[in-house]
Structures are given as C-alpha cells and as structure tokens.
Amino acid sequence: MAQSLCFYSNTRLHICIKASSGKEQQLGCFTLTKPIHLKVSSGCRARARASASHGAGSSAIQIPHQWYNLIADLPVKPPPPLHPKTFEPVKPEDLSPLFPDELIKQEASNDQFIDIPEEVLDVYRLWRPTPLIRAKRLEKLLNTPARIYYKYEGVSPAGSHKPNTAVPQVWYNAQEGVKNIVTETGAGQWGSSLAFACSLFGLNCEVWQVRASFDQKPYRKLMMQTWGAKVHPSPSTVTEFGRRILQMDPASPGSLGIAISEAVEVAAMNADTKYCLGSVLNHVLLHQTVIGEECIKQMEAIGETPDVIIGCTGGGSNFAGLSFPFIREKLKGKINPLIRAVEPAACPSLTKGIYAYDYGDTAGMTPLMKMHTLGHDFIPDPIHAGGLRYHGMAPLISHVYELGFMEALSIPQTECFQGAIQFARTEGLIPAPEPTHAIAATIREALHCRETGESKVILMAMCGHGHFDLPAYEKYLQGSMVDLAFAEEKIQASLANIPQIVR
C-alpha cells in the first residue's frame, strides 16, 4: 500500500533507496520551492529526509566522504608518543588494550585522506552538513566593517561537534566485537556524544565525569543516562586510582586527567572493554575535519575567503576540525589566513605551558605525548565556568603551533561571557561556555577592524549550544562570576612532576 508524505517549501529533500542487498544509496537531493506530496510504494524501501536549508551555502554542500590528515602535508612530522614505562616510541600492540585496530592505524597514519565508512556517513546525515551562518546582527551591534561567519556544530543530536568522532569510534569498536566502552568527560559534551553513539550501535557506555561538572551540570548527566550510559563522578570509589585520590583529598573537584586515569584503568583490566577519547589524539582530530572540509566548500559557494580563523581550544579537536583543512590550503599557497586558537586564562596550556613530553592522564598510565602542557597534576579551579579544562593541548596542534602556522591567546572568563551575551542577544543562539572564548576573540578582532576600517572576513568555530550550561550564565548575570588569577606557583609545582625526557 502506498503512503503519502507531505514536504513543505524551503526544505532540503534527500531521496534514498535501499536495494534488496540492504545497501542504501542516496539518489539525489534538492531544495523545494513549493509544497509537494510524495507517494512511496511499499514495494520498494525508500527513505526521504527533509532538512532545513539554512546558512551560507549550505544547500549546495555535500557531506565529505573522507577525513583529512594534516600530518601528510606537514614539512616536519610530529614527535612520536612514547611508552610510559620504557620511554620508547609506542608500538601498535602497546595500544591494543585500549583501542580497536583501525583507530590505532589512523592514529599513526601518514595517508592524506581516509575514507569515511558508509555506516558512519549514514549517521552523519542526521545533522550534516552543518550550517555556515553570517552573524549580520552581531556585525551591526559592533558597527564593524568586518564580515563575521560562524560554522555551527550545535545542530547535532548531542548539541556539539563531539559526535563527529564519537560515531566512528563506536562503530570501529562495534566492528571488532567490543561490547563495552568507557570514557571520561568534563562538561559532559563528550560523554553525551559517546552515549548517543553507543545507543545507535548497541554498546554499553560507562562515563567518569569530573566531579565539579557532575555537580554543576546535572542535565548533562541525565542526557547521558537517557541514552543508556552509566555515569560516575570522578574521582570515584569504583577504581583503585579514584579511591587513592579521595583518600588524599575527600573533597577533590576532580580533573580530566583523573577521569581519564579511571576510565583507562577499567579498560586495561577488562578484555571486552575499550576506551574512547574525545579530543587530543590524532584520530580524534582526523574525524573532526569534516567541519573544515564542509566549510571550505561553503565559503567557496558564497565567494568568500577567510582572513582570520578563530576557534577555542581545550584539548583541541574542534579547533583542529575547522582549521586543519584551511591549513592545507594555506600550505599550498592558495590562501593565507591568520589562524588563532583561544584558550581560558584559567587553563592556558598553549600560552603558559611548556612544550614537553607529558602523560595524558594524572596517574601516568597513558603514553607520553609531546605537547604544550601545564603538567599532568594540574587541576583547574572548580569555579572556572568556561569549559576547556584539560592540562595539555593536542600534540598535533602543539606541533603546528611550534611550526608557526597558528597563534594563540588566552582570555578571562568574564570577557568570554560578556561576548556570549552579546552573541545570544543578536544571533539568538546561546553558546556553550567553550566557544565563548572564540566569540570574545572574534569581537576583539571585529572591533579592531572598526578602528582600522579593514573589512576582514572572520571565520569562527561555534562548536555547540549552551542549553545545559545555564548555571554559568546565571553566575555571570548575577554578577558573581569572577576572573581567576593565574596561579603561577600552582602550575610550576605541577610542571615539576613532568618526566624529564630529551629526544
């Protein structure tokens, strides 16, 4: 029996057909100019999906079918990760207790492009391509000649860019028969994204959430639980390392380094369990490049070229996802944008840390990575509301920074939230605390253009919405948010515990 589907005008219609073999193929897509009724016969299994055609150039852009690996194009390759006990370069078998084989291959790959599996693309189609939007109202408020664009990743089911890597990580694990996934999360964007991905592929998900965020953001916890995940505050009594931390400090606010140690401990002790990381590692940054690949095409479609590219950095995956494909074009000599990473003054790994080998976790269980770090013992102040709390920066971003292909600055949290309020009251979107750093830096640049009269094109990474982060906004609106003084002695004490390795 035929069914009738009604689609309204100004929607993007994707027509797919599933053959008897079970493989689905997209036949085409187009934007409707008037309402239509579509009759689908039960004799063939067809699927039609409508999505909003909004944002600059979005309607003409297809989802990338390959991830881009910046390592292939760098003039100097990044230093290798080291085994935490031998200090020798890690071998694939050293990582096998934590990751599936395909992700280990991607972590060490020098291939320029890596194909995205069709099953992953099928999930990406739930929200990709994401819109590129011009912030005209913000431009008007700032009275700037600059043209401001933002690539908005908050349209994903989890509300951030994190599912771009959560989905493939879980899929690769599922392909190898893994049943259980463990991870850490700070604000909860990564944990909720992984819980979402595990729910799609039928894997169990267990998350250690930094205690300070666990208490401050209960709805992120509920979001993870709704998708079927088990969530622990970290440090927890579940792991030996967590119990050790609580014995030393029963009121510990936790840190991402501690939460990573707890999740890694569980993965290492259980053969049917693997670990997933939401940032920092090469394969994570690789998966996020769908952002930049889409954005290049979107900007080409509207005839714009960015003069300045700005993104927030904690571990670095969102920033890398947008900027790495543009760095490729910069290395080719096609464009020459200024690329700027923005981090919180309360956790400034790029601008205040040192470039050295350090552990990715507090317990020293992970491989040593050469990165900009504040020391694996560093714990940000729990009243820091702006996200981005990791002690180190992604090794690949750190390497790119050392090569001089990008710059970095840190901004205090009150300026970030002031910018977020301006953005929300002009563009309508309430940003997550993380991209408020990019917004603040974008406003600085736009105001500089007002002074100089330059009509620069500013491209900003808007990595997620702040619907579950409203307590931070409440603090700002009530006037109780304060800028945190840079604790030099605290960081120096943490840096003193970094292994002394010369390579």
From TrEMBL:
Superkingdom field: Eukaryota
Chain ranges of the Tryptophan synthase beta chain-like PALP domain: 126-464
**Record keywords, A-Z:** Amino-acid biosynthesis, Aromatic amino acid biosynthesis, Lyase, Pyridoxal phosphate, Tryptophan biosynthesis
Q: What class of enzyme is it?
A: lyase
Pathway listed for it is:
Amino-acid biosynthesis; L-tryptophan biosynthesis; L-tryptophan from chorismate: step 5/5
State its Enzyme Commission number(s): 4.2.1.20
Does Zinc-finger show up as a keyword for this record? no
The record, for Gene3D superfamilies, names: 3.40.50.1100
GO CC term (a single one)? cytoplasm
**Keyword Amino-acid biosynthesis tagged:** yes
Reactions accelerated catalytically: (1S,2R)-1-C-(indol-3-yl)glycerol 3-phosphate + L-serine = D-glyceraldehyde 3-phosphate + L-tryptophan + H2O
Q: Which cofactor does it need?
A: pyridoxal 5'-phosphate
Q: Which GO terms describe its molecular function?
A: L-serine hydro-lyase (adding indole, L-tryptophan-forming) activity; pyridoxal phosphate binding; tryptophan synthase activity
Q: Which family does it belong to?
A: Belongs to the TrpB family.
Q: What does this protein do?
A: The beta subunit is responsible for the synthesis of L-tryptophan from indole and L-serine.
**What do we know about how this protein assembles, alone or with others?**
Tetramer of two alpha and two beta chains.
How is this protein named in the record? tryptophan synthase
The protein's organism comes out as Camellia sinensis
